């Protein structure tokens, strides 16, 4: 499906238009109002048990019920409502303290939902849940279950947005009742639609198993009536390099480097080598360093020379106090200068 041009344009412009707003992160009036109401509710919780010893004398009960809706309690709630650095909260409280007081003292009984009365009805900063936009119109699919419960209504609960649905994963359509490719409808009646993911082997399907595919996903092939995994590693020309091994997985495969001691391998580690690199040999099924120094055939040819094994190789060194000549290690002449005549000029260079 090709998206219509205006949508493409909108997507391109969106980041540009949003940048200035992102920079200062100023909350919308509705968000500020919602936060204020949340804090007010917390204040009510925090003061609920105040001035109440926990005993249950008649006197205490009477005092409590008086305190419950008292101005004293309101002041206690308002006093601690906004953090000292919360500019938006303090500004809103300053501007609308009287309304909060009126609600607390007189209107609470008739309008028990503070958010609804304060943010929606009185200040008109927000809309009721399930409605959107300047006039608080019903979201797509109705205010009770916007977007069939399968998506988010744009502007839901705010004075913004256009009421359209942004569907959750797996759903599409104006009311988020249709299933996208890779999902099938597992329930559909007048009010509800539920889309469930296909088996991973299906591109599209009518049910949950690999026998319910309409079309196989890439890396899977239809055999009999089911989509089965393709073993890419078993292909006539294997897909990995010679220094790698191939691992088949559902719907795909991967290549991984052989152990450094292998020439070709069938899996991870030195036990899976096909052949070993020079200086290594298979020992107990594993490529192992050859100790050239302990071979019957002498590795170091000069007379008196020491042999040291190294990974994959060996070195031949004359003992301390000896130096190498073509076919033997000979005692170094100590008297008459420590170095030989050929190295003398380099000393003068210094
Ligand atoms: C539709 O399905 C849902 C979910 O199973 C169920 O709760 C609801 O009662 C059904 N509605 C009708 C009209 O059958
Ligand atoms: C591979 O696919 C088959 C068939 O869809 C499935 O039964 C199996 O559990 C899958 N294996 C893994 C490791 O995901």
UniProtKB/TrEMBL annotation:
Its UniProt entry gives the catalysed reaction(s) as:
Catalyzes the rearrangement of -S-S- bonds in proteins
Gene Ontology molecular-function annotations: calcium ion binding; protein disulfide isomerase activity
**All copies of domain EGF-like, residue ranges:** 135-177, 289-330
Q: Which residues form a coiled coil?
A: none
**Which top EC class applies here?**
isomerase
Show the disulfide pairing: 167-176
Enzyme Commission number(s) from the entry:
5.3.4.1
- Signal peptide span: 1-23
Q: Name the Pfam families for this protein.
A: EGF_CA
Family matches, as PANTHER family: EGF-LIKE DOMAIN-CONTAINING PROTEIN, FIBRILLIN-RELATED
Which protein, by its recorded name, is this?
Answer: protein disulfide-isomerase
Record organism? Erinaceus europaeus
Q: What is the lineage of its organism?
A: Eukaryota, Metazoa, Chordata, Craniata, Vertebrata
